[in-house]
Amino acid sequence: MEYEAVIGLEVHVQLKTQSKMFCGCATAFGAEPNTLVCPVCLGYPGVLPVMNEEAVRKTILSGLMLGCEIARFSKWDRKNYFYPDMPKNYQISQYDLPLCIGGAVAIPGKKLGITRIHLEEDVAKSFHYETTSGVDFNRAGTPLMEIVSEPDMRTTEEAFAYLTALKEVLIGGGVSDCDMEKGQLRCDANVSVRPVGQKAFGEKIEIKNMNSISGVRRALAYEIQRQIAAAKRGEKMVQETRRWDDEAGVTSVMRTKEHAHDYRYFPEPDLMPVVVSEAWLAEIRSAVPELPEAKRKRFVEQYGLPEYDAEVLVADAAVAAYYEQAAAGSKNPKAISNWVMTELLGKFADNKIAPLQLAELVAAIDGGQISGKMAKDVFAEMFATGKGATVIIKEKGLVQVSDAGALEVLAEQAIAANPKSVADYRAGNASAINFLKGQVMKLSKGKANPQLVGEILARKLQA
């Protein structure tokens, strides 16, 4: 019997705001433990939360980018549980009336549905040592958006594509930096297996503790095979939460799964409902940026790029913006793409080359001022110093020699000094000209125009 997986993802995204969800504490990453805190986010008795409007706006923006229906009326709820990372012993969240409903994430050849997007506050972070544990409350209260997918994914690759596409949209919209190493994007996966053709879902298993998108893919691959093997042995699955151990490559039981009633949800008494007016919704809708799928299509049409180039460039919003600025100042957008992808992509964060400076370098190559080989050296100097191509070419005397008369003289010297290569070429060995070309380049100290040298040598050798 063949089995298939049914996968749904719960993605938690820290929103890019200056302050926390219900207090004025900063959301900066990397501060000393328990320094970005106040009586509100520490859950002191008698304190009152105040809603962060920017967090609500960014959640609505996310919903619009993902095609959700925006609720004109939503409310806050208390989700009760007792754990060291939740100082109040409850979390302010949204239960039955979330901000965003429906929507989808587009992956190649398929759209994967979204159930809902709701807003809540993040919890603190626990640290476990050899004999002790500690809790850092700096993260507690950070605006956290939860995006719950439909169980539309059937393979680990679809789950990987979903997370990649979702991350592109959120970063492109300025909603979050989605840095998983900083905990800005975290994912829980719900997975079950069933015989192919069966409509009913199997018993859902939740997987936690996945710290990268590739980790999600590995955890799902393991868990799917574990469940299929259990099903073939006739074992009955029990709804539970499992922890992923990335180093060992296995999942293990954490606890049996809680249900909604276990959290004893009830309306948050200290916060007013969220009412979204038509005017505010229209204002947020006007801020929806061009989405990655549309941008890829435009790059192909506007700049004549191959689909692969467009895919690579658009994958990072900052890289895509850089490319567009450079291409706008260039007559050769494909060459700009080549330089960005091959020379800048892996070290973009350290880049000192302005977009128009890259366009200037490409123009110098296309205009015959420097050769492709020279350009590599010029680029390295630009990257290190931030200087423009023209300045470096002038400072280092790298202008390519394209004077036909001067190259004729050098070609004659190379021919006279290498009679064997000349004889080989005239005997039918066409590749022998490359040695002669190299000799001319050496005589010119690398400054000769290689294309012109080749033309001059061919003409003289055929005479």
End-to-end separation: 76 Å
So how many helices? Answer: 15
Q: Let me know the largest β-sheet.
A: 10 strands, mixed
Find the count of extended strands (DSSP E, 2+ residues): 17
Q: In angstroms, what is the radius of gyration?
A: 30 Å
Helix percentage range = 25-40%
The tally of structural domains comes to 3
Structural class category: alpha+beta
Shape, per Cα inertia axes: elongated
Mean pLDDT: 91
User: Which spans of ≥5 residues are poorly predicted at pLDDT below 50?
Assistant: none
The percent range for strand residues is 15-25%
Describe this structure in words.
This protein is of the alpha+beta class and 463 residues long. Strand 13 (205-210), helix 3 (213-232) and strand 14 (240-245) form a beta-alpha-beta unit. Helix content is 39%, strand content 20%. Helix 5 crosses helix 6, helix 9 (355-366) runs antiparallel to helix 10 (372-385) and helix 13 runs antiparallel to helix 14. Strands 1, 2, 6, 7, 8, 11, 12, 13, 14 and 15 form a 10-stranded mixed sheet that branches. The protein has a 3-stranded antiparallel sheet with strand order 5-4-16, with no helix packed on it. The longest helix has 20 residues, at 213-232. The protein has 3 domains: 3-284, no CATH class; 292-395, no CATH class; 404-462, Arc Repressor Mutant, subunit A, CATH 1.10.10. It starts with a strand and ends with a helix. It has helices at residues 53-65, 156-172, 213-232, 278-285, 292-303, 307-314, 317-328, 333-344, 355-366, 372-385, 389-395, 404-417, 419-426, 432-443, 450-462; strands at 3-14, 69-70, 73-74, 77-80, 90-93, 100-101, 104-107, 110-121, 125-128, 133-136, 143-149, 185-195, 205-210, 240-245, 250-256, 266-267, 274-275.
